Amino acid sequence: MKMTGDTARTIPDDVCAAFMAFDDDYLADVFRLWDCDLKCWHEPIAMIFRFERDDILVWNEDGALRCRRGAVNLDEAENVLPSSFKTGAAEGSCLCWASDDLRRRFVGMTNICRELTGSLI
Predict the structure, then answer these.
(1) Do 73 and 43 contact (CB within 8 A), yes or no?
(2) 68 part of a folded domain
(3) Which top-level group of life is the source organism from (predicted)?
(4) pTM (predicted TM-score)
(5) Which domain holds residue 114?
(6) Per-residue pLDDT reduced to its tens digit, 7-16
(7) Which residues pair with residue 57 across a beta bridge?
(8) Residue 5 resides in a domain
(9) pLDDT per residue over 44-96, tens digit each?
(10) DSSP E strand boundaries for 26-114
């Protein structure tokens, strides 16, 4: 368990398992939800990990990490997130998926899923 701010967060087993299924696969890119109006990352944990074979969508829902495996349409911005995800964005906000420079060093690598999940806490 690691501390982030005032809260402790652990990675749930299902999220770890989803990532470990891709450990031998190449990471193609990582995207985060970007607020075009405010020019900042909208949500710390709303990410798409694009692997060679498939995508993993990760989000924070009521303080718990959740994930879903499957192809993600980058043109859909926050609409690809489950309805239970509350973006906190005002109606008509400009949200888009943008490459995450912080995790760019992992692109093109395999056997990095432990580091990727560790970067979520």
Answers:
(1) no
(2) yes
(3) Bacteria
(4) 0.83
(5) 13-119
(6) 445 789 999 9
(7) 48, 68
(8) no
(9) 788 999 999 999 999 888 888 899 999 998 887 666 777 666 556 566 678 88
(10) 27-35, 40-41, 46-51, 55-61, 64-69, 95-99
